[in-house]
Write a structure and sequence with these properties.
three-stranded antiparallel sheet, about 550 residues, five-stranded parallel sheet, Gyrase A, domain 2, Rossmann fold, 4 domains
C-alpha cells in the first residue's frame, strides 16, 4: 500500500546514497503537521557513516526521494519533500489522502494491521499476582497494558501467547492457610492472634464465615493443608473472575507447584550444575550469576534445603525458551526491578539469547478524588482493589485511563474524571465521536438511503482544511499501530485516538455532513464512515468498546 511504497522509495534513496548496510527504515508521524504528513530520521543514522552533517545528508536524500517518487506506482501521491533539521519530511498529495480513504473502507476491521511481526511467536507473561488476596489497582494496570500489547502485536503479524504464572506454593501460601484457619477459629469463638506477616484482609473473614456456615465446628478437624488449598483456590477463582470481567482471558495459566512436580526445577538446577555454574558456600547452593552481568551471586537453595524464589523462576524461564518462542516478554511491577539482572543472567547461563528476554516495568498507580490522593489502606468509601475501581468507573474507562501514560511512568488515576460523562473524560470523548458518527450514518440511511449504492463518491469534494486534517490522521493509523508494536508500548494509541476524535468533532462542528449537495454529502459520509472504522479499530486494540449510542 501507500506506506509500503514510500518505504521502498526511501530505501532506494538510501541505497543510492550509501552502498553500505541499510539502517532500519520507517516513516514517523510529526507532532506538528507543519513538518509534513510523514517524517524520517534516517539522515541522522547515515551522517556518522558519511562524515557529513544530518542536514547535508537529508538534502541529498530529498533530491533522490523526489526522483523515485515519480515512479508510476507513486506518481502524483507526493506533494512536496523538504528537510528540516536533518529530518526528511514528506507532504502527501490530496490524491494520496483520498486513496487511503478508499483503503480504510475497503479493509474495514483489518485497516491498521501490518506485517512487522512476520509470524514471530511471542510469549507475554503479566499480572502473575500471588493468589493470596484481591488484585490491586497496580495489578489492574498490568492487565490493561499486557492485554493491549498482545492485541497490538497480533495485529502486526505476531503469534502471541498470554500467560499467567501462579505462585501457588511456598511460605506465602502457608501463611494464607494459617490466616484462614485462625479466622475460622475466630468465627467459632476461639480467637487467636494472626501470625507475623499473616493476611488481615476482610476477604478472609468473609471466606471463614462461609466455611463455618458450611461445616461448623468440625471444620477444625481439617489438616493445615486443607486451609491452604481452600484459601488459595478461592483467591485464584476471584482473580480469574475479575480478569474475565475486565475482558481478559489468558491463553495459559502456569502453576509453580506443577512446575516442581514436573521436575523442571531439578532439571534446570542440574543444567546449571553441569555447566559448573553452581557452587556450595556456607551450607547453601549458589548460582554464579556474576559471570553473566549480575552484581552478585545468588542463593538458589538455602542451608535448610529449601529453594529460594529464584530457583523456580530459573526453571520457568528455561521452559519458556524450550517452548521455542522468538521473544519472551515479562511485564513486572516496580518491586521486581532488582530481579531483572538475575533472571537475565540465568537465561544467558542456560545458553539462551538473553536479548530475546524483554522485561518491562509497569509502574504503580495513585488513585485520586477531588484532586486529593486516596490512601491505599482500606477505609470506608475508599478504593484499594482493582475490583472496586471497576465497580466505580467501569471497564472501558479503567482500561483507557490505565493506558494513558507510558507503562514506566507513574500513573495518577482520577476517579472522578474517569466516572464522568463529559468531554473532559478522554475515553468518553473518543467513544462519543464513534457514537456520533453512527448517529450521522443512521440519519443518512433514512434520508439518502442510496448513498452507498452509487459507486465511489466524488472524494475530490473533500477540500476543506478540517477534511484534510481528518484524512491525514487516517493515513497515520497503520504507522501508529506499528510504532506501538515496535516500542512494546500501547500508550501512543490512546494519544492518537484522542486526536482523531478531536479532529472529527471540530470537522462536525464546522460542516454539515448531509446537505442538499448530493456529491458533497456522499464524500463526507465516506469520510466519517472511514473515521468510524479507525476509531473502532483503535478502541478494539485497547480492549475498549465502541458504542453506537451514548
Amino acid at each position: 500500500m501507500l506506506l509500503d511504497r514510500l518505504n521502498d522509495v526511501l530505501r532506494q534513496a538510501v541505497q543510492t546514497l550509501d552502498s553500505g548496510s541499510v539502517p532500519a527504515l520507517r516513516w514517523e508521524v510529526p507532532k506538528d503537521h507543519n513538518f509534513g504528513d510523514l517524517s524520517s530520521p534516517v539522515a541522522f543514522k547515515l551522517a556518522a557513516q558519511q562524515r557529513r552533517s544530518p542536514p547535508e545528508v537529508a538534502q541529498r536524500l530529498i533530491t533522490l526521494v523526489r526522483q523515485h517518487s515519480e515512479a508510476p506506482a507513486l506518481r502524483g501521491c507526493v506533494e512536496r519533500v523538504e528537510h528540516k533539521g536533518g529530518f526528511v519530511n514528506v507532504w502527501l498529495s490530496h490524491r494520496a489522502l483520498l486513496r487511503v480513504l478508499a483503503q480504510v473502507r475497503r479493509e474495514g476491521a483489518r485497516y491498521g494491521h501490518g506485517r512487522f511481526g512476520g509470524g514471530r511467536s511471542v510469549l507475554i507473561e503479566f499480572v502473575s499476582a500471588n493468589p493470596t488476596g484481591p488484585l490491586s489497582v497496580a495489578h489492574g494496570r498490568q492487565a490493561a497494558v499486557g492485554d493491549a500489547l498482545a492485541q497490538i502485536l497480533r495485529s502486526q503479524g505476531c503469534r502471541v501467547t498470554t500467560e499467567y504464572y501462579l505462585n501457588d506454593e511456598g511460605r506465602q501460601i502457608e501463611l494464607l492457610g494459617r490466616s484462614l484457619l485462625l479466622r475460622c477459629k475466630e468465627q467459632l469463638g476461639q480467637p487467636e492472634p494472626l501470625p507475623e506477616g499473616g493476611y488481615q484482609g476482610l476477604y478472609l473473614i468473609e471466606q471463614a464465615k462461609a466455611c463455618v456456615k458450611h461445616q461448623g465446628a468440625r471444620l477444625l478437624e481439617q489438616p493445615p493443608e486443607w486451609f491452604m488449598e481452600e484459601a488459595m483456590t478461592e483467591q485464584s477463582a476471584r482473580i480469574k473472575h475479575d480478569l474475565a470481567r475486565f475482558g481478559l482471558r489468558f491463553d495459559r495459566w502456569v502453576s509453580q507447584r506443577a512446575l516442581r512436580h514436573s521436575e523442571r526445577i531439578d532439571q534446570a538446577l542440574g543444567e546449571l550444575a553441569r555447566r559448573d555454574l553452581l557452587y556450595e558456600q556456607d551450607g547453601a547452593t549458589w548460582f554464579a550469576s556474576t559471570r553473566f552481568g549480575d552484581d552478585k551471586d545468588r542463593v538458589v537453595k538455602k542451608q535448610t534445603g529449601e529453594l529460594t524464589y529464584l530457583a523456580p523462576d530459573i526453571a520457568y524461564h528455561r521452559w519458556k525458551f524450550q517452548r521455542g518462542y522468538h521473544q519472551v516478554i515479562n511485564l513486572w511491577g516496580p518491586d521486581h526491578h532488582g530481579y531483572i539482572s538475575r533472571v537475565k543472567a540465568a537465561v544467558a547461563a542456560l545458553g539462551f539469547p538473553a536479548e530475546r528476554l524483554i522485561v518491562r516495568i509497569v509502574q504503580l498507580v495513585t488513585l485520586s478524588r477531588q484532586g486529593k490522593p486516596v490512601p491505599m489502606s482500606k477505609r470506608e468509601g475508599e478504593f484499594v482493589t482493582f475490583r472496586e475501581v471497576l465497580d466505580e468507573v467501569g471497564v472501558d474507562a479503567t482500561r483507557f485511563f490505565y493506558l494513558m501514560r507510558t507503562m514506566e511512568s507513574h500513573l495518577d488515576f482520577d476517579l472522578d474524571l474517569a466516572a464522568s460523562q463529559s468531554q473532559d473524560n478522554p475515553v468518553y470523548y473518543v467513544q462519543y465521536a464513534h457514537a456520533r458518527i453512527w448517529s450521522i450514518l443512521s440519519y443518512a440511511r433514512r434520508q439518502v438511503p442510496w448513498w452507498r449504492r452509487l459507486g465511489p463518491p466524488q472524494r475530490s469534494r473533500l477540500t476543506e482544511p478540517e477534511e484534510r486534517l481528518l484524512l491525514r490522521q487516517l493515513v497515520q493509523f497503520p504507522m501508529i499501530t506499528e510504532a506501538c508494536a515496535r516500542a512494546l508500548e500501547p500508550q501512543g494509541l490512546t494519544v492518537y485516538l484522542q486526536r482523531l476524535a478531536e479532529l472529527f468533532h471540530v470537522f462536525y462542528t464546522k460542516h454539515r455532513v448531509v446537505t442538499e449537495d448530493i456529491a458533497r454529502s456522499r464524500a463526507r459520509l465516506a469520510l466519517v464512515d472511514a473515521t468510524r472504522i479507525v476509531l473502532a479499530n483503535g478502541l478494539h486494540l485497547l480492549g475498549v468498546s465502541a458504542p453506537r449510542r451514548m
